[in-house]
Each structure stands twice: as C-alpha cells, then as structure tokens.
Structure prediction request, 185 residues.
Amino acid sequence: MPTEGSAQHPRTELDARYSSALNPRPGAADVTATDWAQARRQLDAAEIFWLSTVRPDGRLHVTPVIAAWHDGVMYFSTGPEEQKARNLAHDAHCALTTGGNSLTEGLDLVVEGRAQQVRDPAAVEEVITAYEAKYGAHITSPEGTFHGIGDAFRQGHAVVFAVSPTTAYGFGRDDGVYSHTRWTF
Prediction:
C-alpha cells in the first residue's frame, strides 16, 4: 500500500470510477488526476469556503467562512458561541469546500480534517498575516468587510481553528470532461 503524503506533497489518485462514468465522450479516457499544485493555487485564490460541521444531535451544519491556507494547514475563524464553534467542541471533524457553479469548467475542492483551536499567540499572528496577505483591504482597510479581525483573534472575540487535511478531493470540469482526484495526506 502506498504511503500517505505530506501537506506539501500528498499522494494523488484519480478516481477512475467517477471520472470514467461521467466521460463517455471520445478522448475522455485520457482524463488525468489534478495536480496538487493546481489545487493549492485555487485554495490560495478562493475567497469563500463552505464549512461543514456536525451538530451534537447528528444533523449537518453548513456555513460560509473566509479561510487561508498557510504552511499546509487551512485556517478559519468563528465567534466562540457560534453554532460551528459549538459543533467543533463536540466533534472536530469538518470539511471546507470551495469551487464554482459552472457545469462545464472549473475545479471544486473539498478539504477534510479535524479542526483544532489555535491558542498560541505566535501562531495566531501568523494566521493574521496569512489573512491580511490573502484578503488585503478587506482586512487591512478601516472600510474593509473584516477590518479588526486581527484584534478579534488576539483578544479571543473570534476563535481561530486549524484544519490539517487528512484527505482532499478535486472535482474538475473541462469542457464537459470530468475528473475526480483524491489527495491523501
């Protein structure tokens, strides 16, 4: 059995069952797995992610969040009393999803793992820097949508979570040719 990869170089597999079943067109047999570097570029560029958590009674909870990839980890935040924080206190398993709405082009990504609260002040500062680099004026400008989020992180008014991926999935569409890639970390 192949060994699992690292956050920088995960093991990459094409799920031929999904990719073949959706590609009856000529030439579709040449479908290849999406390179992790391409997925990383999209994670870096995506502005909105959908966070999926599980409520204590087993029902799903899905909500949009902003998130940043930094040093092989996805980071997001929430208020300490919000539903997603309460869900993660009960069950740390979660998924962050991003992508597009086109039927014929794009790459949808799902990152699965366990969320851990970031408490170390130095790590929180790194997350703030990653957020500022990614979201720019949305965070750094007084008129920005999330201005002050860094101070909220520092003061504990917003809880920062880190998700080290265990598995990620990419669902590619290129002019009607579909692919399903799995990355194992």
Q: What stands out?
A: Residues 121-135 form the longest helix (15 residues). DSSP finds six helices and nine strands in the chain. The CA atoms of residues 36 and 167 lie 12 Å apart.
